[in-house]
Amino acid sequence: MSTERTFAIIKPDAMRAGFTGRMLARIEEHGFILRAMRMVHLSKRDAEGFYAVHRERPFFSSLTDFMSSGPCVVMCLEAPDAIKKWRTAMGATDPAKADAGTMRKDFGASIENNATHGSDAPETAAFELGYFFRGLEF
Ligand code: CMP
Q1: Which residues line ligand 1 at a C-beta cut-off of 6 Å?
Q2: The CATH number of the domain where 98 resides is what?
Q3: Which tens digit of pLDDT belongs to each residue from 118-138?
Q4: Which domain holds residue 132?
Q5: Which of 9, 38, 86, 116 has a Cα at 20 to 30 A from 16?
Q6: Number of folded domains in the chain?
Q7: Which of 11, 54, 63, 110 to mutate to test the pocket of ligand 1 (most atoms within 8 A of CB)?
Q8: Is 117 a catalytic residue?
Q9: Distance in Å, CA 136 to ligand 1 centroid
Q10: Is residue 27, in this structure, part of any structural domain at all?
């Protein structure tokens, strides 16, 4: 399995709840290497650009309000098979449906306030990493 990079977010709900440190520790315990990390408070426009693939969804406005409601932590995580590995560690989008021991089960509150984000494919990871980080920051 080759080393891969993925993009991850600790979302505003999890930061407000004081889960940031525990979530970062969990990320390291899972064996991910943090290649880049920054705290950022997205504007509504930033969030709309990031989630542009969802712009036709009924929850788009609410999602982008939520994602711009406070600071979040954006990260580049590296590991063998990182994209799949991080999605497994996060659990299902809806915390109510997420497996025990996953990040969303333990730190998420609802399908929108679900604590974390992770890229779903290599092309998405490339777009999302590029949205937040420049080459020199890795
Ligand atoms: P994320 O993995 O960041 O990708 C898109 C986000 O949209 C998702 O996590 C959820 O926060 C949100 N989302 C997905 N489905 C719904 C839904 N049915 N209602 C509200 N928010 C949703």
Answers
A1: 54, 59, 63, 93, 111-112, 114, 117
A2: 3.30.70.141
A3: 999 999 999 999 999 998 788
A4: 3-42+72-137
A5: 86
A6: 1
A7: 63
A8: yes
A9: 31
A10: yes
21 lies in a domain? yes
| pLDDT at res. 130 | 97
Q: What is the pTM of this model?
A: 0.97
Q: Is residue 23 part of a domain?
A: yes
Position 106 in a domain? yes
User: Which listed residue (30, 41, 54, 117) is catalytic?
Assistant: 117
Question: For 19-58, what is each residue's pLDDT tens digit?
Answer: 999 999 999 999 999 999 999 999 999 999 999 999 999 9
Of 54, 67, 75, 93, best ligand 1 pocket probe by most atoms within 8 Å of the beta carbon: 93
